[in-house]
Every structure is written in C-alpha cells, then in structure tokens.
Design brief:
Elements (H helix, E strand, L loop, with lengths): L2 H71 L5 H28 L2 H5 L2 H16 L2 E8 L5 H20 L5 E9 L2 E8 L6 H4 L7 H10 L3 E6 L5 E8 L3
Parallel strand pairs: 1-2
Antiparallel strand pairs: 2-3, 3-5, 4-5
Helix pairs in contact: 1-2, 1-7, 4-5, 5-7
Keywords: 4Fe-4S, Cytoplasm, Iron, Iron-sulfur, Kinase, Metal-binding, Transferase, Two-component regulatory system
EC number: 2.7.13.3
Enzyme class: transferase
Amino acid sequence: MTKSDEISKALDALSLKQNKIAENLASGNTQMRSLAKRVWRVQEDERKHIARELHDGVGQLLTALINQLELTAKDPVSDEIQQSLKDSLELARQALSDTRKISRLMRPRILDDLGLEPALKWLTRVMREEEKADISLETQLDHELDEETQTLVFRVVQESVTNAIKHAEAEQIIVQVVSQPSLLMVKIKDDGIGMNTDEALGPDGFGLAAMQDRVSAFGGQLMINSAPNQGAEIKMLLMGSH
C-alpha cells in the first residue's frame, strides 16, 4: 500500500467517524425535542386540570355561597347585619370573578372546544377590555393545526401581549397569525418602550427564554426585533406541516 493509499484510507475512516458523530447529534437533538414536548404536554394537562377544578369546584362553591347570602339578605335583619351581608356578597362575587378569570387564563375551554381562532379572538378581546390597550388581531388560517401547535400559538400570543402591556407599556399591539400547509407565522408588534433582546432572552426575561425553548421543541424559530422607545416585534416561524 502506498503512502497516498494510507492517507486516503485514513481520511475515509475520519469521514465515517464524523458522519457517525453527526448522526448521534441529530438523534440526540430529536430526543431532546421530543422530551421537551412531553414535559410541556404534561404542564398543559396540569393547567387544564387545575382550571377545571377552579371553575367547577371552587366556582360552584362560591356560586352557592352567593345564593345563600342573597337569600339571607332578604330576611328581616338589622341595618348593621344587612350592611355586613352586602359587603360579604360583594367579596364573594369578586372572588368568583377572579376565580373564573384565573381559570380561563390557565387553560381557556374555548381553545379545546372551538379551536385556535375563537380562542385568540376571546383572548385579545378580554385583554383589550381589561388592560385598555388597542389590540388588533389578523388571522389567515388556510391550514388546520394540530392540538399541540394550536396551544403553542395561543401561549406565544398570550405571553407576548402580556409582556407588551405589563413591561413595555404598549398602547397599540398588532397580532398576526398565518397558517399555510408548509408555513406557520405568528407576529406580535407593539409600540412600547422596547427591550434589550439579550436581557429579554436571559433568566430574567419575563418568560421569553422559556417561550423560545418551546418554539425550538417544535423545530421552529423565535425572533425578537426591538430598540429603545421603538417598540418590539416578536416573530415565530415554523416550517413544514403541523
């Protein structure tokens, strides 16, 4: 065997090793994504369970308490007790309202019962009314998404709009969702005070890093474009069928 043959054989062996390492890395990435999706699915199932317990359990108890207080308030009692009953009724009604709100935000039934578009319309309407922000929603859903991807889109929009209002002090927010057979795009643009993207994706980044991890588990990309006092744009892209 000539020297040239030995070198060629060594290069072939090295190439085989590199290909094997690349295959192992690809396999490892696939397993990590699969594991991340399973963990996230368990979290969503737990959210759904707690949301139903709050709505059907605590919510019904509070409704029964309100009915009992209303009946008691009709009995002849002193003005002092009447005022106490009115105060208790107000507290119970506020507790019921807060419980239902937390239940819906944890896992809105409309997402499971009617799908993504009605859930996004509900979310933007509720946040527009409660937060006094101008939130517009544009959807073009030409391709039906599977249940997990619908949940991913809902959480990305929910987290982004919440951050825009709570942390960026945005007054105008535009949400766009486009679903085609080979492309899914979600874009949230606001006119807030902007953010440092490196800090936003760090451990104190208001949940954006976790959102980026979730998108990566689906094989997608989450991009943030922002500058001080020039608002922010958060865009999620998933290629292929979902």
